[in-house]
Amino acid sequence: MNLDFSDDQKFLQEEARKFLEKEGALIRNRNVLENESYIDTELWKKIVELGWTGIRIPEEYDGLGLGHLELCVIAEELGRFLAPVPYSSSVYLFTESIINYGSEQIKKEFLPKLVSGDIVGTLAVTEELHAPSASNIQVTYESGKLNGKKIAVPDAKVTTHALVVAKSTNGISLQIVDLSSEGVLIEHQETIDESRGHFSITFNNAEAQLIGDDVSGWEIYESIINQAAVLFSYEQIGGSQASLDMAVNYAKERYAFGRPIGSYQAIKHKLADMYIALTLAKSNCYYAAWALSTDSSDLPSASATARVSATKAYQLCSKENIQTHGGNGFTWEYDCHMFYRRSKLLSLNIGSLNNWKEKLVTSLEQSNIN
Amino acid sequence: MDFKDTKEEAKFRSKCREWLEKNASYKDESTPQNDDFANKDKMVAAKAWQKKKYDAGWAMLHWPEEYGGIGASSMERIIWANEESKFDVPKGIFEIGLGMCGPVMMEYATEEQKERYLPPMAEGKEIWCQLFSEPSAGSDVAGLRSKAVRDGDNWIINGQKVWTSGAHFSDFGILVVRHDPNEAKHKGMTFFFVDMKSPGIEVKPIKQITGGSSFNEVYFTDVEIPDSQRLGEIGDGWKVAITTLMNERLAVGDADGADVEDAFRWAKTQDNQGEPLLNNGAARESIADWYCQKSGLKNTKLRTMSALSRGDTPGPEASITKIVSAGKLQDIGNFGIDSLDMAGMLRTDNHDIKGFQNAWLGAPGLRIAGGTDEILRNIIAERVLGLPQDPRADKGIAFKDIPTGN
Question: What's the CA gap between B314 and A174, in Å, rounded?
Answer without folding.
Answer: 45
